């Protein structure tokens, strides 16, 4: 369970809070959701990611997440993941991601808060048991919950639409902990699921946004610095901004 390592005491040195989305893993070959060719183009959210009816679509749900686990297993961290790991050793850094892959951890990041869960987890909704299944296959009606043996009550440990995101409070606490000398960096998210625009306006300190293109969901005025280019290409410029604010 991600907990903020000691609330950001007022006299603590400047901190970096990073909120990332699918765009951070795009250069590792993992599809985003709403860009051209994104996951939601070829799949019906209501069939594969809806908390109200997932038990009726078990084969489609597990098939969709099996494909995503296979894609994650084949992917490698990209320079943007590596940069986040580097920044975490250089400055006190809190990493919150909407991504369910493990590329930040494989780049060397620690204490990553997965706001939408993790692909490698499974959760049984018949007995509430949650475990790390890994990125291997899951066969419906064959594989079962290790605790109660249920086969049709097991769902990937990813937060579905209509499901409460347990880590949401962590995000709110992290935002509430930001002080004027702390930096908020948002990278690779359309802000469709989180109020990113509001976060950019509410953060008391410097704010940086790195996406591919401007969006009316997150107008430029919401951030002090906006970089519209692939995260891997923006690393040097983002790092220079962070050094200016955090060193
Ligand atoms: N570098 C930086 N940004 C990128 C890159 C890249 N290489 N490629 C794409 N982006 C940006 C796009 O400009 C877009 O703003 O990443 C964002 C991807 O947006 P989405 O596909 O909507 O992904 P995300 O914001 O993470 O979705 C949030 O929605 O469906 C749910 O649970 C799912 O966690 C996901 C949530
Ligand atoms: Zn169970």
TrEMBL record:
The active site is at 116 (proton acceptor). The keyword NAD applies. It holds the Pfam family SIR2. Its EC number is 2.3.1.286. The keyword Metal-binding applies. Zn(2+) binds at residues 124, 127, 145, 148. PROSITE patterns: SIRTUIN. It is an enzyme of class 2 (transferase). Keywords: Metal-binding, NAD, Transferase, Zinc. It comes from the Bacteria. GO terms for molecular function: histone deacetylase activity, NAD-dependent; metal ion binding; NAD+ binding. This is protein acetyllysine N-acetyltransferase. It comes from Caenispirillum salinarum AK4. The lineage of its organism: Bacteria, Pseudomonadati, Pseudomonadota, Alphaproteobacteria, Rhodospirillales.
């Amino acid at each position: 369970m991600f907990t903020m390592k000691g609330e950001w005491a007022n006299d603590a040195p400047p901190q970096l809070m990073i909120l990332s989305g699918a765009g951070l893993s795009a250069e590792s070959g993992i599809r985003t959701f709403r860009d051209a060719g994104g996951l939601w183009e070829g799949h019906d959210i209501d069939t594969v990611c809806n908390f109200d009816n997932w038990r009726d679509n078990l084969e489609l749900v597990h098939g969709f997440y099996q494909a995503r686990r296979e894609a994650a297993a084949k992917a490698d961290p990209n320079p943007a993941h590596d940069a986040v790991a580097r920044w975490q050793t250089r400055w006190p850094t809190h990493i919150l991601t909407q991504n369910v892959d493990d590329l930040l951890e494989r780049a060397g990041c620690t204490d990553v808060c997965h706001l939408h869960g993790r692909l490698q987890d499974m959760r049984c909704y018949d007995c509430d048991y949650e475990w790390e299944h890994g990125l291997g296959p899951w066969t419906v009606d064959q594989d079962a919950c290790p605790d109660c043996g249920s086969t049709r009550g097991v769902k990937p440990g990813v937060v579905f639409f209509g499901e409460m995101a347990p880590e949401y409070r962590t995000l709110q606490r992290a935002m509430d902990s930001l002080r004027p000398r702390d930096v908020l960096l948002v990278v690779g998210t359309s802000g469709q699921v989180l109020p990113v625009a509001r976060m950019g306006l509410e953060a008391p300190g410097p704010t940086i946004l790195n996406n591919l293109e401007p969006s009316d969901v997150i107008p430029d005025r919401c951030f002090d610095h906006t970089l519209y280019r692939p995260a891997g290409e923006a690393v040097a410029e983002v790092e220079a901004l962070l050094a200016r604010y955090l060193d």
